[in-house]
Give the backbone structure.
Amino acid sequence: MSLYELSGVARYFQRGPTTVRALDDVSLEIEPGAFVALEGPSGSGKTTLLQILGALDRPSAGTVTFDGSDLVKQPDSALAALRLRSFGFVFQQFNLIPTLTAVENVEAKLAPVGGTRERALELLAEVGLAERADHLPAHLSGGEQQRVAIARALSVEPRVVLADEPTGNLDSATGGEIIDLLANLAAEHGSTVIVATHDASLAARAPRRVTMRDGKITGNVSAVPA
Amino acid sequence: MFYLRYLRNELVRRRTRTIVTVIGLGLGVALVVAIASLSKGLDRAQHKTLDPLSGIGTDLTVTLQPQQQQDQGFGGGFGPGGGGGGNRDLIRANQSVLTDLSKLGKPGAHFVHDFFLPGTQLTFQQSAAGQIASLDGVAKTTTGLTLLAEHQEGIVPKIVATLKTQAKTQTITRNLPRPSAQDFAKMQACLQKLGVTLGRNNNGGNGGFGGGRGAQGTGANRDAFQKCLPASLRRFRTRFTTPSQTLKQVLNPPQTNITTTAYTIGGVDQTSPTMGVVTTAQLTKGTFLSPAGGTEALVATSYAAKHSLKVGSKLDLNGTSFTVVGLVSPPLGGQSADVYLPLKQLQTLASEKNLANVILVHAKSSSDVAKVKQEIQAALPQAQVASSKDVADTISGSLVDASNLSHDLGLALSVVAAVAAFLLAALMAFSSVGKRVRELGTLKALGWTQRMVVRQIAGESLATGILGGIFGIGLGVLVAVAVDAFGPSLTASSTTGSDLANLGVSTVRTATHSVSLTAPVGMTVLAIGFGLALLGGLIAGTAGALRAARLRPADALRQVE
């Protein structure tokens, strides 16, 4: 059974008098444990699709079935619960809380599920930041901030990690490290990973590449396991 | 606990924002606390000073005011001794000050003398109090005598020259006009009526008529003649003598060095220590007048300070030595005085035996006051009846201005300050949340529910509110303490009487009270100020958080920081 089943998903935005079709009739299936790259130029609808997959947004039309239930029909509170326990997000801008230290940022995700500070510190150790746990985001490099974000995303053992241009603000070497870290940790934690990127070289690392353009899926390639 | 650490971090790590918000809130709260406290202080001062009658256990005062149109003979001997217009009464009542200075001693001798004048509060028989006491609703009455004292000291001047005049007799003779025939006929008719017959030959003799005729007539005839003579012919000649006289002429101006100081003196019924022109309630030092009514005096604190009088000091009044037994702080109003003596003592000194010029009335209940006032006015139309409010209305000065200001403006200002504090808190909380929409979107993306986000922000707002409230209360109390310590002195003056130019002295009596402005901080005020800070921060913060947390996380994340 698929983890995700999307059928005829559309998302329109009203920009003044014109309607922008960010997503237009998208249908997609994603298997559990997959590592998927959403590939496409900016404005192709990757971020919108990722937000709908992560229950951050609702589609204007179509159905989004996650783990057998239609997200479109779920109330906000159920979506919040899903985001808390089943999804982990990694953003291009890192989106760390600026007033919280590295470990506290991880705790921000753990606290609602009753996770402890010790658990947060373990996760920081996993991403190699044990010694920088008490630093504020402003005192961390971009790569370090993104590691904190990965630790935060994985802290609750989510079903899915959704990463939106996780390397967009990083140099290519750091970007590579981050993608590797994400892939390895997701595999360890048994999480499905969906990464949106406009970087074809990064997308090439993913076993499955979904290519997008103008809100539509234009390519859907699974690498044949070697 | 993570949420509390988060809260603390928000406040500590966004220090500038927190400090600005706390100061803003604090200023608002401080303003509310300070204004409310000042207002309360003024109210207290006003209550103490401007409620002149309740302090002396009295609801109404009854005085006799001079009136131009005077109804004579109203009951119970309540009224000035004689008739005549109001001004005449005033002049008569105050004439002792016109006393010939030469009576004070031989020219060149040093004299000290106190003249006691009722001023514009005319005296009346004390028995009038009984008439009021018998009215319905009156619980108790007592009388007082409040006089204006002119203390004069100096050298008796040589002011009078004595002149003796001799008796003089003067004679005046006038030529009389000739009576007309008509006059003559009238006279004749008159004489006939009275039974006097005149010979025909006589009717023509105009020239020699007059005295010769009268002198020859019998006694009865002479009377008839007197009656019948035309007016123009009567007394054609007169002789008068001016008597011998001794005239005293005032030398103008007398050479002297007399100094006059004015003060007020009150006669108190010392057997009524809780109700009278001064009561035990106003005693600040020493004891009240003993019931026996000896040569004891109470002195107002301000007067005592000016004249270095203490408990135990001697006060010499026209040869009688009074011992100061206590200092008092009398309330303002028409009946306050600088020096108080037992009523009988003052009556003797001022030659006002059995006379008083104020009746203090205590009603059975405060709701009866208006009714009693009407009754007294009906019973004694010439009386001026004043309630506490009437007396308070005559008081003026910076205290009155300030308390009026505080009444008119204090509330408005408090409200403005409170609203300002509230709006400021709201604005700060709202804008701070507005800047954090993306952060709140991130929290939602992490799985925080709307409730958790709002709770977190509300907690921050609450904490800021508490800090602002504490700061504001501290600042407000500091202002209040500063006002207590360095507060301006407010004065209240009460003027009674009027200038009487024709007396040459002023009977205007001005009593002034100085009250140091205080700002007592009440728990209610603190609670209100604190509550406002909390409420302002909380409502605004929560509203802002709700607005942000309601956004779909995707929309919130899209917000540019």
